[in-house]
Amino acid sequence: MLRIATCQMTSGPDIGANVQIAESLIRKAAREGANLALLPEMFTIMSNDPKDVLRLAEQYQDGPVQRIMSGLAKSLGIWIAAGTMPLKTDDPHRVTNTMLVYDAFGQEAARYDKIHLFSYEGQQERYDESELYVGGHKTVSFNLPLENGLDIRIGLAVCYDLRFPQLFRRQSGIDCFLLPAAFTTNTGKAHWEVLLRARAIENLSYVVSASCGRAFWGHSCAVDPWGTVISKLNGHETGVCFADVDPAFLRQVRALLPALNNRVEYDK
């Protein structure tokens, strides 16, 4: 059994305060028996001024936040999926939106750069992430070993990726997807939970999300492969909720409904 702690928080422009809150949530997760803690998208810095994000972006594998996350994972003996943070690129005006995963020894286990960049224009709000971010171009997954000798196959996605089912379906054999997010209130109210449940049902996998609160939709939750919400945080509260990824239940659902084995190729 893999016990995942979903950490919901509201980040602001003060990176020190943000990391301090993240650390407290990770420590709570470890105290309550989690094997893995998942942080939200852009947990290190959330600002309306792109200059703040550019200024606080770190070099890959060389930055204080990365050292803190690695050190926490090692000292607590817990895997940490460090939400996302901005990392520098060759373009001085744009960064990547990157999730880094550290194993229980503090070693980096995976890096995923958000592929799909959000754009939205309503009556009172506008977003175009491509103005600040460079999109990734490859899917990422890894094995997380359990004490009984079994592995859980973990797939990674971020926020807007949730709207692109082909990204999830392309990754065969995933037992659990981790999804840090900062869904807007308007889109979250209408689509957040139904999209999480759809991706879980389509792929017969767990989907565990950690979302930003307050200015965003929040409502972090975990969905099992039958599409049932098994844990969630209501609204915008800062806190932790827990979900168990059960290999036996995965096998049961996939035997009952072998949709992944029934796929066929279509003529164009």
What does this molecule look like?
The chain is an alpha/beta fold and 268 residues long. The protein contains six helices and 14 strands. A six-stranded mixed sheet has the order 5-4-3-2-1-14. Strands 8-9-10-11-12-13 form a six-stranded mixed sheet, covered by helices on one side. Helix 1 (15-31) runs parallel beside helix 3. The radius of gyration is 18 Å and the shape is globular.
List keywords for this structure.
single chain; 268 residues; 6 helices; 14 strands; 29% strand
SSE map:
Elements: E1 2-8, H1 15-31, E2 36-38, H2 50-56, H3 64-76, E3 79-88, E4 95-102, E5 108-113, E6 119-121, E7 126-128, E8 141-145, E9 151-156, H4 165-169, E10 176-181, H5 185-203, E11 206-211, E12 221-223, E13 229-232, E14 239-245, H6 247-256
Parallel strand pairs: 1-2, 2-3, 9-10, 10-11
Antiparallel strand pairs: 1-14, 3-4, 4-5, 6-7, 8-9, 11-12, 12-13
